[in-house]
Amino acid sequence: MRRNHLAGILVLSVFTWVVIIYVLLYDRLLHNSFASPDPSYNLGKLETQIKEEFKATARLLSDVRRAIETQREAREAEEERVVADDEVRKEDERRLQALSGQGAIAVIVFACSRVTVRRCLDQLIKHRPGAEQFPIIVSQDCQHQPTSDIIDSYASQVFHIKQPDQSEIYVPPKEKKFKGYFKIARHYGWALNQTFFVYNFSTAIIIEDDLDISADIFSYFLATLPLL
């Protein structure tokens, strides 16, 4: 609504500008016509100038309409993307809650901006006994699109969640060099809260995205779980 209002104001301004130009040119021509021996020449010149102004205005209005249409399409596309992402998030949440209710063990892979996360995920998928027993949750920070695209390429083989808070963290000047660790801590806190309090898992294996995975990782954790 606000964009349409602004567009209306812009169109009205352009129209007003054309009227003002017309009046100024016409007034100037009237003054010149008294001294001109050929009034028809001045009228023809005025007509030509007015036509040129209307053509320029028409081009400007066309550009404005295209810009408004482009903005509208972009806004609608973004709204559709948000709705689709929300539906995927809700469906993933339902699936993970169902798996946690069956005693599954979550495998949380913490990722940020390393496209080499593919190596880690390939190894996890290769060695895990089953997707329902060990669902892989890839929690991504940083909003790094190339990494996000790689994770999404695994489709239903993994669950892709994104840490939503990308705001800057205040760090005291003397601890500025540790700012990255503060962001990592925030990411860990959010992902673990999602895993244990939203998806309702009671057990989780934490994996960093740059780790090489041993073939016996899952049997090792299953064997040592009673000791924990």
UniProtKB/TrEMBL annotation:
GO cellular component, one term: Golgi membrane
Coiled-coil parts of chain: 61-94
Compartments, record wording: Golgi apparatus membrane
Primary location recorded for the protein, binned into one broad class: Golgi
GO biological process: protein N-linked glycosylation
Bilayer topology: Single-pass type II membrane protein
Protein name in UniProt: Alpha-1,3-mannosyl-glycoprotein 2-beta-N-acetylglucosaminyltransferase
Catalytic activity: N(4)-(alpha-D-Man-(1->3)-[alpha-D-Man-(1->3)-[alpha-D-Man-(1->6)]-alpha-D-Man-(1->6)]-beta-D-Man-(1->4)-beta-D-GlcNAc-(1->4)-beta-D-GlcNAc)-L-asparaginyl-[protein] (N-glucan mannose isomer 5A1,2) + UDP-N-acetyl-alpha-D-glucosamine = N(4)-{beta-D-GlcNAc-(1->2)-alpha-D-Man-(1->3)-[alpha-D-Man-(1->3)-[alpha-D-Man-(1->6)]-alpha-D-Man-(1->6)]-beta-D-Man-(1->4)-beta-D-GlcNAc-(1->4)-beta-D-GlcNAc}-L-asparaginyl-[protein] + UDP + H(+)
Protein origin, superkingdom: Eukaryota
